[in-house]
Amino acid sequence: MIHVHLENSTAKAEPFWLTTALVDTACASYGNLPGEARFTVGNDPAAIHACLSTADVLVTSAGVIADPHFPRGDLARIAPKLRFIHLIDAGVEDVMPLTWLPAHVQLINNSGVHVEKAREFLLMTLLALNSRLPQIMNNQWHARWDAIFTSAIKDKCLLVVGLGDLGKAAVAAGLTLNMRILGVRRSALAVPGVERVYGPDRLKEAMALADFVVICTPLTSQTRNMISRSVLETAKPGAALVNIGRADVLDHDALVECLENGLLSGALLDVLPQEPLPASSALWTCPNLMINPHVGADDPTTYMRETMRLLFDNLRAHRRGESLKNVVDRIREY
């Protein structure tokens, strides 16, 4: 009997709660597991110790791991049977470094469950930025009639920074729009559909070629402030930028200046330096900037369904002694 404990964070929006109903639906849909499984659901981090004492698998969010009640400093003793933790978040920066995680316990992230919604969102975003929609909306707010003519997006250059699951969704969006696609990734290995892949050391060279830049990279010690002031200043004049990755990859003060001085024609941020974004933030009033409240890649009808599909795939692999999907690399931090 394998014990799977799901610890819910009510800080999440309701469509993303871990519930008994979600477990029942998943068991009916994906429940052909080798051997038997017992599922428990909790909603109180202060009471999690009892559940962890017998759990083989923990499904939860980064917020629960970061909660003071979670026994990060004594996990091996309190959860002696634990073999993997499945985070329902794609980003894992809030639980780094993994010095609290016993060596025999693997951390799984939720990368990939949001790919289709992200692709649709980026299709919309690229078309909106190509048509200068942020500037048109700004003109509307000021009752200013200014006929802005723009050319078709076909054959324009899209630079995708980070070519994991989210980056590949951006590539798919660009291919749908018949764009030229460049990429930046840690390994600089080729990716289908990408004309050329640059290493991070050649980011400025790639920026100078791009009409659109989409940030999709995870946040690690290597990518923090990756899109810095000096990088933004090498952008092709009139380029537009999207961040659907992690906020701290981008220098927001420099972004505001580049939008104000016209170096960048527009930007859309789906991730913000503080969420919710305070009313006092200069980002709210920055010209030609659209703010999306971190919902671009989240489909409330499929996100948790795909989360449970991934969980059950890994439960089957675990019982068979096979490799798990989406294991976080402790060195790479994603």
Automatic annotation (TrEMBL):
Protein name: D-2-hydroxyacid dehydrogenase
Top-level lineage group: Bacteria
InterPro entries reported in the protein's UniProt record: D-isomer_DH_NAD-bd, NAD(P)-bd_dom_sf
The species this protein was found in: Paraburkholderia metrosideri
Residue ranges constituting the D-isomer specific 2-hydroxyacid dehydrogenase NAD-binding domain according to the UniProt record: 124-296
Keywords: NAD, Oxidoreductase
